[in-house]
Amino acid sequence: MSLRKQLRKYFIMGSQNCDRDPVETLREAISAGITAFQYREKGDGALTGKTKLELGKMLREICAAHQVPFIVNDDIELVEQLQADGIHVGQEDLSVREVRQMFPDKIVGLSVSNIHELKQSPLSFVDYIGAGPMYDTSTKSDAKSAVGVQWIQFLRMQFPDLPIVGIGGINTQNASLVIQAGADGVSVISAITKAPNIKYAVTKL
Ligand code: 3NM
Known about the structure:
Layout: H1 3-6, E1 9-13, H2 22-32, E2 36-39, H3 49-65, E3 70-73, H4 76-82, E4 86-89, H5 96-102, E5 107-112, H6 115-119, E6 128-131, H7 150-158, E7 164-167, H8 175-180, E8 185-188, H9 190-193, H10 198-204
Parallel strand pairs: 1-2, 1-8, 2-3, 3-4, 4-5, 5-6, 6-7, 7-8
The structure holds ligand 3NM.
């Protein structure tokens, strides 16, 4: 499957996002049809060190068993330990130039929130970009202000062939607007972790 297709329903999660067992949540999301997964232990209550690694191993195995790409958020060491398929970094994290040098064959994703960030982003080292926040979100405490689907439209015009996912505040109601604006996919946390019915939520995204 092409990367653009693999990014269509991109679930991001860490234990801090889950009221329920993260392993069960991932299993349900996969059987409901997510196409990629990012392990992101970040923010209040996130695991670190050994416990982060242990949960990562379980989630990694589940993804491998179902051929779902497993991407690690901003943790070089964990990418190696878990033999992840890729890594996602933000603008303040390790530079994508260095990440690409370290991992020539892995998927490299970069968050790009505005024109200023776009200008300082060497996109030649990147396989996809995460554009957002599309809408207001309470999941990420330091999220920037919402940029809306216009940001996707702009990026799509500039880069017709670049894989792009929208992120931030995307739910079953607004996901189609993000896709219509030109995104290849939607990346979501709470639309799945807080869903009363994961099967329904993933189908609607
Ligand atoms: N990154 P939810 S917004 C992890 O704008 C993350 O780069 C964002 O959570 C960005 O789907 C965000 O629950 C949180 O809104 C997404």
